[in-house]
Amino acid sequence: MDTFVEVATLLPYGIENTSDIFSEIHSVFSQTEHNIVAAYLITAGVVSILSNIIVLGIFFKYKELRTATNAIIINLAFTDIGVSGIGYPMSAASDLHGSWKFGYVGCQIYAGLNIFFGMASIGLLTVVAIDRYFTICRPDIGRRITGCHYTAMILAAWINAVFWSVMPIVGWSSYAPDPTGATCTINWRRNDMSFVSYTMSVVAVNFVVPLMVMFYCYYNVSRSMKGYGSHSLGGCNVDWSDQEDVTKMSVVMILMFLIAWSPYSIVCLWSSFGDPRKIPPAMAIVAPLFAKSSTFYNPCIYVIANKKFRRAILSMILCKSRQEVTLDNNFPMSISQCTLT
Asked: Which residues form the G-protein coupled receptors family 1 profile domain (predicted)?
């Protein structure tokens, strides 16, 4: 793995048969290294699917958890299951095979769905930050936010994801196997104007802007929490004795967002303004793996950190009946608690 990705050369523009592209792609990794990646993907996929199914099961079992705010978390769980249930198995199978094994159509489906669920996840995390800002820092506005507003914000996140995932299929950039040869993503080999413009737009709209929004929201949330302390929030009967934990969680959310998506953004920018052949193989494979890792740590950060969910999860593990469980009414991260019907 000390050599660079020499295979990532610019393909001749005369190649029109897509099968030629796949025949010229050869992995720079040994089969042992592919097997290690496959083992990671299988393990992470199983953990992610099970944890997110538990999240959805909790919402199904406890009606009081079906709030407008938590509708965002439900959608986030579906994005995680989408990546884990579709992306992980195809990638793991290709790693075990030693190269991409699902052909051109499979490459388009795999890459498109991964971009789709990834962009949707980023958009939903941004909606979570906006919701917490309004409900904690601007409760006068937060109290006026209805289920329709939440539906509109969630739909905006999904529509944004559809747009960016479809563009490479219709001609703005393209999808192709990456230099590892065992997975598909944006075609780094043709870093022409189409690739550069698409990449810069994606990084700006789906990384820089969400990061700025989350930082602004969580920074103000932290300041507001320190100001409220254990007092009620804007006249609402909510105990904020856990405000220190909330502040720490806000910082963790930003850090995990950076850890997950920074390597992928760096590789995209490197491909746009540098030589794709000089991208180290380790970075080429670590970047998408880090981005996908959000599928199994999201449940921990956004759900298990909530005391109400911790009680619900514990009751499910202990097989308690619905009548035996009394959930706390306080949400440590949000006060948007109107139950969805």
From this structure: 51-302
In the chain, the domains with their CATH numbers are 18-324 (1.20.1070.10)
What digits encode the pLDDT tens for the residues 303-316? 666 677 777 777 77
| Alpha carbons 13 and 195: distance in angstroms, whole number | 14
Spatial contact of 161 and 117, defined as CB atoms under 8 Å apart: yes
Which of helix, strand or coil describes residue 233? strand
pLDDT band at 237 (very low <50, low <70, confident <90, very high): very low
CA distances from 165 to 34, 67, 168 (A): 26, 29, 7
Residue 100 has pLDDT above 80, yes or no: yes
Long-range contacts of 207-214 (CB under 8 A, 24+ apart): 207/122, 207/261, 207/265, 210/122, 210/123, 210/125, 210/126, 210/257, 211/254, 211/257, 211/258, 213/126, 213/129, 213/130, 214/125, 214/126, 214/129, 214/253, 214/254, 214/257
pTM to 2 decimals? 0.80
Report which DSSP code applies to 86: I
- Mean pLDDT, all residues of the chain: 76
pLDDT of residue 33: 79
pLDDT of residue 157: 95
Q: Model confidence at 10, in pLDDT bands (50, 70, 90)?
A: very low
DSSP string, 163-200: HHHHHHHHTSS-EEE-TTSSSEEE--S--SHHHHHHHH
Q: Exposed, middle or buried by CB within 10 Å (0-12, 13-18, 19+), for 254?
A: middle
Q: How far apart are CA 226 and CA 240, in angstroms?
A: 10
